[in-house]
Known about the structure:
By secondary structure, the protein is α+β, with helices and mostly antiparallel strands. It contains 3 helices and 8 strands. Strands 3, 4, 6, 7 and 8 form a 5-stranded antiparallel β-sheet that branches. It has a 3-stranded antiparallel β-sheet with strand order 1-2-5, with no helix packed on it. The longest helix has 50 residues, at 113-162. The chain is elongated, with a radius of gyration of 36 Å. It starts with 11 loop residues before the first strand and ends with a helix.
Amino acid sequence: CSAHPDRPPSPVNVTVTQLKANSATVSWDVPEGDVVIGYAILQQRQDGQMQRFIREVNTTNRACVLWDLAEDADYIIQVQSIGLYGESQASKRVHFRTLKETDRLPSNSSNQGDITMEGLDKDRQLQTGEIIIIVAVLLMWAAVIALFCRQYDIIKDNDSNNNKEKTKPSSEHSTPERPSGGLLRSK
């Protein structure tokens, strides 16, 4: 290895997450046993238009947000660990592509087959999730209604057994004299 003995080892497991149209998060791991006091990230567009160098010391962070990226563009990043006696060799090159701003450009989204498919998959997942919730709510309501009907049947049965006299004069409610007559009759 051509690495200097005092230099820390290169970062490993460099990954890009939270990919959006104009930002992304890069994270990495540092092999155990070496004092790492910071990191340096080289970020460049694959077409060579833009290059950025991010350097941060006195931090134990193992992630960094890349901001102000161009949408729908290819980028390459490499991460270096900064030790007390120098910087590590650069990590493996990691390639990623920013997303297209589909909200802003709905007419052109058909050109990007992969991204629109991902979007459709996400929508589909959301829909199935919503359907599951709706079905669960409906089942819950069905159970509540069934329970209520059962309780209501029991109450109705009890009422019809105990108060047959009270339930009979339902057709005669229109005349106000009848209820007192009904009470007399029940004696």
